Amino acid sequence: MTAAAAERPPVSIITGFLGSGKTTLLNRLLQDPALANTAVIINEFGEIALDHLLVATPAENMVMLSSGCICCTVRGDLVDTLRDLARKRDRGEAPPFDRALIETTGLADPVPILQTLITDAAVAPLYRLDCVATLVDGVHGAAQLDAHAEAVKQVALADRVLLTKCDVASAPTVAALERRLARLNPGARLLRATRGEMAPQELFGAALANAGAGGTALARWLNDDAFAAAEAHSGHHGHGASHDERIRSFCVYRDQPVTAAGLMTWLNMLAALRGANLLRVKGLLNVEGKPVVVHAVQTLIDGPVSLKRWPDADRRSRLVFITRDMERAEIEPTLAALEFDAGGLSPQGAFDPQAYARFVALAQNFR
After folding, report:
1. pTM over 0.90
2. Rounded to an integer, what is the distance from CA 58 to the centroid of its chain?
3. Which of 11-15, 277-281, 303-307 is least confident?
């Protein structure tokens, strides 16, 4: 999230259960002038049919669309596809692009794609993650959430949740589904998309593009107020199905600054020992007086990144969690690690048995 990072093409992931309307949405989006110069990456066995937009073939596995977008097919590993696309662009063998969209299959887990974008040594220097947009069928969405854990996870990982087919679903069905989606992921922006109509500016731009992001952008990204409000009302509303009951969303505030060593200790222990239960973690932390943002997806940590300035007068650390099979009460004891002092553990200094004992005691909180 340096200046160089802001110049990398943002990548958005479009996911959603089978029949949720990804084909319709993409077809409409790619006809919007705002998405000219977009690279679209689809699975070879996916559901997308863009033949009517095809105008030319610039390279193997790539086609030009009438909108000016370039579309390529994943025939092997996503890393190879992303790297090949960037290489051909740089060589002039494929048109330039300033954004990429990745469409997943209806049963896909978005985490491996997030892992590629955040941590892969060949891909992370070339692209930056923007958002996960999850489509939910307004007619069949409730039944899909009841029956399929994959559908619930797609919603829990989303930055944007698009409710489709609202024109054919009954108003009570849509309202009930929206309440359920808001409980599953309070931080996601909930939108309605009828027949694929969606302005790109409503859908994309969820990430913090640079370290100088203003207060409005940061508030939209973290959205801790929504998590706090949802948790305050959670005792009055039951979850809709067993898959939902495995998901928890909550916000934690800490008044005292944390240490840099403590933040890294906490993040690494949390990811290593409890990562399978963490669907998403976002935070703005006061690290020794300086504002630092963190973002983690299961075992993956993106950042931490120091901001140039505080977005507002609030100097508390704020962390939002979406977890699976993990309660707030299991997270709270681990937060003591945020104030850990690494003195005595450094290889440059003398080994301190007491410091090591404190470290071991903190580690027990993650078990």
Report:
1. no
2. 32
3. 303-307
Quickly state the pLDDT bin for 3 (edges 50, 70, 90). Answer: very low
Confidence band for 353, pLDDT divided at 50, 70 and 90? low
pLDDT score for 96: 87
Query: Strands, E, within 10-120: which ranges?
Result: 10-16, 38-43, 54-59, 62-65, 70-74, 99-103
Q: What is the pLDDT of residue 235?
A: 57
Distance, C-alpha 160 to centroid of its chain: 9
Give start and end residues of each alpha helix (H) in the chain: 3-7, 22-29, 78-91, 111-119, 141-147, 149-156, 171-184, 200-203, 215-222, 224-233, 242-245, 260-274, 328-331, 353-364
| Cα(362)–Cα(367) distance, integer angstroms | 10
Let me know: does 204 contact 130? Beta carbons within 8 Å.
yes
- Tokens 């100088």 appear where? 212
Domains and CATH numbers, the chain: 3-203 (3.40.50.300), 215-364 (3.30.1220.10)
List Cβ neighbours of 209 (8 Å cut-off, separation of 6 or more).
1, 5, 6, 10, 128, 217
> Is residue 333 reached through a cis peptide bond, with omega within 30 degrees of 0 on the bond before it?
no
